[in-house]
Amino acid sequence: MFPxxxxxxxxxxAGLSLSACATTSESDSPMVGSYACGQLDIQxxxxxxxxxxxVDYLDKRLLLKPxxxxxxxxxxxxxxxxxxxxxxxxxxxxxxxxxxxxxxxRPGALEMPFVARGNEPFWRAEVHAGMLEVTRPxxxxxxxSVMVEQKTADRHGREFVGxxxxxxxxxxxxxxxxxxxxxxxxxxxxxxxxxNGDVFEGCGGDPLRLFQGAEWVVDDLAxxxxxxxxxxxxxxxxxxxxxxxxxxxxxxxxxEFNGEGGLRFSQLATTRMACAPxxxxxxxxxxxxxxxxxxxxxxxxxxxxxxxxEGETIKAFQSGHDNP
Length: 324
Fold this sequence. Notes:
mainly beta, about 5% helix, ten-stranded antiparallel beta sheet
């Protein structure tokens, strides 16, 4: 019985068939091309004549200039050091106006350390610093540690292979939304662990990457739609902060995910503007549902679903615009 199922999304890359290529090393020059900063996709390019770096995201373009850095390549917006792009090889950090986004990864790259796990039977694997540490199925009190090499690296994922004392271990990871069938938790990666001739399926990566980096614009509130030309939005920010627009007022607060896929919002507070009664009523209803949300998941079309124990839902899609 497989412990996870793979969900097909329009932008997901399916399958675990990876073509071999050379491992990318860290560089003092930024890698141009696409990155995924959580749910924010960006395009990075350099101009050899001006030495400027352009970062395109949503409907905006940033032009950044080189800055001194102890390692990697750092580019900063002229006159605004709160906007910067700092890269080391296939990973980078993006900050816009002081807002830090999730670690930016080149297609197929993984955050490090990378953790994968599966159920029935339970197993866990962690890759870091050239080492694969595995809690093997049926052997929960023992850990297998094997030095591994990254044998495959392409836009679909990565494969790590190692052998020690007659044990050959392979961890193959693909960029594909994956759901644990026991807990219902969703992960950004599908994982397959091979120990000699045994194969185990599972999921891996940080679940928060599925929610962070995007502005989620509410499309439906508790199956009652929304008022025409009104707007409600949600941003899952770093440090477990949440913010957005509640219809009339902006709101802030905290969020907390647990290991079983649960989500809870707390300390929700709003500004104090007054709007038309219908908007204020919608805002009150939105904040009431938000305060009772217990779970979050990504749907088949990339939409965000928030649900309460009573069965009320909030459905939202990613915005295609950069809204302050």
